[in-house]
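chain below, 126 aa
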Amino acid sequence: MTLLLVDDDCSLRRRTASRLRRHGHAVITAAHGQEGWMILRTESSIRLVVTEVQLPLLDGRTMVAMARGRRPELCVLFTTRHPETLALSHDGVLAQPGMDMLLKPFDLDLLVGRVHALLQHATHSS
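prediction:
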């Protein structure tokens, strides 16, 4: 399955994409939310988005809301360095099926496990 990875940290984006590819995933990367949104509008094969919440040009939360407006089945793993961002779970964003959050810094194996769990959810929901 194809994933979209959106993070403005080039080094982390490269390492994360490499690990996901080693686990058999096709990965498309974007450096900011606007680029991620442009990819999501044109690339229908994407089943899951791994995105930083705080991004330049268009934040991850807005990008995901726009994408899920068109494709509600899209799974999302938010990442963030800011624990206060967990407030997303209190306003219902993370309560939606197929969504999760991971605090940075994270172990790449933990991220891969979360991705697999979300994709399993996507497979059973379709």
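The domain at 2-125 is CATH 3.40.50.2300 (Rossmann fold). The chain has a mean pLDDT of 88.
thats it, cya
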